[in-house]
Design brief:
By secondary structure, the protein is of the alpha+beta class. It contains 13 helices and 15 strands. Strands 3, 4, 5, 6, 7, 14 and 15 form a seven-stranded mixed β-sheet that branches. Strands 1-2-12-13-8-9 form a six-stranded antiparallel beta barrel. The chain has a two-stranded antiparallel ribbon with strand order 10-11. Strand 10 and strand 11 form a beta hairpin.
Length: 398
């Protein structure tokens, strides 16, 4: 039976509905490919040996050696002729395997270069993950320790890149123009600045934190604005509503999924208000940045998130549409937590051609790979920071 599926139109960047997917049974995603090799320092090349000086009698010795080799060659019998080669047995054609580590290359074919770069970093890292949602928020790993320093990426994602996406720019503007003045933000600022009560000074948190973005976030972040949803959530929208099938996930979705812009105090001026007999803090500048946890952990109690069907040629989505629903023999997933999709590998064309078979991918596949190879490190993404002057200042009474 031919099944409907959705494929990204790279020209219009939208999902196009097509027909012709066929289930391929008894094959599965490969998790066997060796993890990326760690780079090791190359040994310095050895010095070239010096050419010895010629000695008296060297010419005579060489002539005697050549004479001996010629005599040996003349006296050696011809070797026996090799047997005729046996005609190889023609093997039955099989479906080429698709390894989970081929997904980043497929992402690049789909114009998702940042998504590919972050996933490759995940594959290359030591195993690192948070057992619970609370641990992930606190950045505590499976050993009960804070993430090591090399599990923070501060270079791959930049604010300039993120702000190219209109939906991200809208949330950024909302954060710096409105959200930092909300009652919740004022309350958070009060809690952060309360230890400075009674002082008359200027506070520069970046200097206090010695430019460390992690320390700045932990001690001086006071407001945020959320952007977008995960790749799985966008696919759920595609499965649930024909009207939402116009927009395909882009590189921002693939790289960061659901993420936040954050605001941290950039500068605050503290003074004593004689009339109110209170310390007044005026926040005159903020730092704005993106922070996101790159992880394949599912929420506790939820079914593992479906990330589409992938091959080395890209991604498709195979929903349980009315055409497919007429057959009781097609395996699919349907629950209150996950919208229905076909949970089997499918082929578009001849399945023995590499790239024609697409495999259903879930968060749990990455976690299984990590357990198998003891690699795959969840990490935290920080963008660069941007200082934004605040006028008029945000005033807080301590």
């Amino acid at each position: 039976m031919n099944l409907p599926y959705y494929k990204i139109n790279k020209l219009l960047w939208r999902w196009n509905k097509e027909e012709g997917a066929r289930i391929v049974r008894n094959i599965s995603l490969s998790l066997d490919g060796p993890p990326p090799a760690r780079e090791e320092a190359k040994p310095s090349p050895a010095a070239a040996p010096k050419k010895p000086r010629p000695q008296v009698g060297d010419g005579l010795l060489k002539m005697m050696e050549l004479h001996s080799r010629l005599k040996t060659w003349l006296e050696t019998p011809d070797p026996p002729r090799p047997p005729k080669p046996i005609k190889p047995v023609k093997l039955e054609k099989t479906v080429p395997p698709f390894d989970i580590q081929e997904i980043p290359a497929a992402m690049r074919k789909t114009y998702l270069p940042k998504s590919a770069a972050l996933m490759e970093r995940w594959f290359a890292g030591k195993i690192n993950y948070s057992p619970t949602d609370a641990d992930e928020s606190a950045e505590i790993n499976q050993d009960g320790e804070f993430y090591p320093p090399d599990f923070y990426d501060t270079t791959t994602i930049t604010l300039d890149w993120v702000l190219q996406f209109a939906r991200a720019k809208a949330k950024y503007d909302y954060l710096v123009k409105e959200a930092i003045r909300s009652p919740k933000a004022i309350e958070a600022l009060h809690d952060i600045l309360a230890p400075y009560q009674g002082q008359t000074t200027d506070i520069f948190p970046s200097d206090i934190c010695e430019g460390n973005p992690i320390s700045l976030h932990r001690h001086f972040q006071f407001q945020r604005a959320g952007v977008d949803g995960t790749l799985g959530q966008k696919i759920n929208l595609l499965l649930s509503d024909d009207l939402l099938r116009g927009g395909a996930p882009d590189d921002l979705t693939g790289a960061l999924g659901s993420f936040n812009f954050y605001a941290a105090i950039g500068h605050a001026r503290l003074s004593w208000d004689v009339n109110l007999r209170k310390t007044t803090a005026k926040v005159t500048g903020i730092w704005v940045y993106v922070k996101d946890n790159y992880t394949f952990t599912d929420k506790q109690g939820d079914r593992s998130e479906y990330l589409g069907h992938w091959s080395n040629d890209g991604v498709i989505v195979v929903p349980l549409d009315a055409v497919a629903a007429v057959s009781p023999y097609i395996p699919y997933v349907e629950s209150s937590l996950t919208l229905p999709y076909i949970d089997e590998s499918v082929a578009l064309g001849n399945p023995v051609i590499k790239g024609n078979v697409y495999y259903p991918i879930h968060n749990s596949d990455f976690r299984r790979w990590a357990i198998k190879h003891q690699r795959g490190g969840d990490f935290v993404v920080y963008s660069d920071r941007r200082f934004i002057p605040v006028a008029p200042p945000v005033k807080v009474y301590l």
